[in-house]
TrEMBL record:
Residue span(s) of domain SIS: 125-263
Boundaries of every HTH rpiR-type domain copy: 3-79
Source taxon at top rank: Bacteria
Name of the protein this chain belongs to: MurR/RpiR family transcriptional regulator
Single GO BP term: carbohydrate derivative metabolic process
MF-aspect GO terms: carbohydrate derivative binding; DNA binding; DNA-binding transcription factor activity
Record keyword Magnesium present: no
SUPFAM superfamilies in the record: Homeodomain-like, SIS domain
Length: 289
C-alpha cells in the first residue's frame, strides 16, 4: 500500500545518497503520478540518471525498477479518478500509435497472466464449479462484461446459473438471497474495485458459499473474501479498463469445464443446433447451404 511504501522511504531515507534522496522526495510529493513513469522519465523529473533510479529501487529491496513500479501502481490504481486515469494513460502513451500501444500493452498483460495464474487454484476452481448446486456469476460496472460472457457459456453446461451484474448492492442481494453452502460464486473485480461487488461477495462467504475470485492482485479487496483466487492482469488504457487477460482466463475456464462435461455438452449443443437451423438463428452463406 502507499502508506507502507512511504514508510519504507522514510525508514531508508538516512542511508540514501543525495541523488536517491531527490527521488524519494519526488515520490513522496507526487506518488500517484510517479508510479506510472518509466525509470528514464523519473530520472529526468528528479535530475538524476536512469541508473540512479534503478539503484534506488534495489536499495529499497526490489529486484529492479519494474518491481518497484509494479508495487507503486497496484497501490494507486484504485484511487485514481476517471479523469486522472485518462491523464496518466495519455501521458504514458504520448504521441505513439494507439493501436500499437494498446495491443502491445494487452499482450504484456496476457504474458504476465499466463505466468502468474496458480494452476492448482485453477484446477480446484474447475472442480468446485463442477460440483456446485447453483452457480452465481458476479460482476458489476465494467466487470459485468466478463461476468456476462462467462454466464453465457455456463448456461450451455449447467442448469442453475445466476448472473449478478447489478451496480447496487440491494439489487445484488435480491439475486443471491437463496445462496447456501452447496453453491459456488465466481466474482470479478478490477480497479477501480466496485464496493457493491465486495459487499456481495462478503455476504456470499458469510452464507457458506465457495467464492472464486478473478481479480488483478492478491492485495485486491475482493481477494480477502475468496476461497480461491485466479489472477488476471488488468491495465488501464485511458479511461478504459483492459479486460483482455481476464477474458482469456475466462476462455480457459470455459474450455476446462467443457472438456469435463464433454458428453452432456455435446447432446445439448446437438439439440440446440437443430433449433438454430430450424429458426434461422444464424446467417448461412450460399456455399454453406
Amino acid at each position: 500500500m502507499k502508506e507502507d511504501f512511504l514508510a519504507l522511504l522514510q525508514e531508508r531515507y538516512p542511508k540514501l545518497s543525495k541523488g536517491q534522496r531527490a527521488i524519494a522526495d519526488y515520490l513522496t510529493e507526487s506518488f500517484d503520478k510517479a508510479a506510472f513513469m518509466t525509470a528514464n522519465k523519473l530520472g529526468r523529473a528528479t535530475g538524476v540518471s536512469e541508473s540512479t533510479v534503478v539503484r534506488f529501487a534495489t536499495e529499497l529491496g526490489y529486484e529492479g525498477y519494474p518491481g518497484m513500479q509494479k508495487a507503486m501502481q497496484e497501490s494507486v490504481m484504485n484511487r485514481l479518478t476517471s479523469v486522472q486515469r485518462m491523464e496518466v494513460a495519455n501521458d504514458r502513451m504520448g504521441h505513439t500509435d494507439p493501436v500499437t500501444s494498446v495491443l502491445q500493452s494487452d499482450m504484456d498483460m496476457l504474458r504476465q497472466t499466463c505466468e502468474s495464474v496458480d494452476r492448482e487454484a485453477f484446477r480446484a476452481a474447475v472442480e468446485k464449479i463442477l460440483g456446485a448446486r447453483r452457480i452465481y456469476v458476479v460482476g458489476s460496472r465494467s466487470a459485468s462484461a466478463p461476468a456476462s460472457f462467462l454466464s453465457y457459456y455456463l448456461n450451455y453446461m449447467f442448469d442453475d446459473i445466476h448472473t449478478v451484474t447489478a451496480s447496487g448492492f440491494s439489487e445484488m442481494l435480491e439475486r443471491i438471497a437463496k445462496i447456501g453452502r452447496e453453491d459456488v460464486v465466481i466474482a470479478f473485480s478490477f480497479p477501480r474495485y466496485s464496493s457493491s461487488t465486495i459487499k456481495c461477495v462478503q455476504y456470499c462467504r458469510g452464507a457458506g458459499a465457495t467464492v472464486i475470485g478473478i481479480t488483478n492482485s492478491k492485495l485486491s479487496p475482493l481477494a480477502e473474501y475468496c476461497d480461491l483466487v485466479l489472477l488476471a492482469k488488468s491495465n488501464m488504457v485511458s479511461l478504459v479498463d483492459s479486460l483482455v487477460a481476464p477474458l482469456s482466463l475466462v476462455n480457459a475456464l470455459i474450455v476446462a469445464l467443457a472438456t469435463a462435461r464433454e458428453e452432456a455438452l455435446a447432446k445439448t449443443l446437438d439439440m440446440l443446433e437443430k433449433i438454430w437451423q430450424e429458426n434461422n438463428i444464424y446467417e448461412r452463406r450460399a456455399d454453406q447451404i
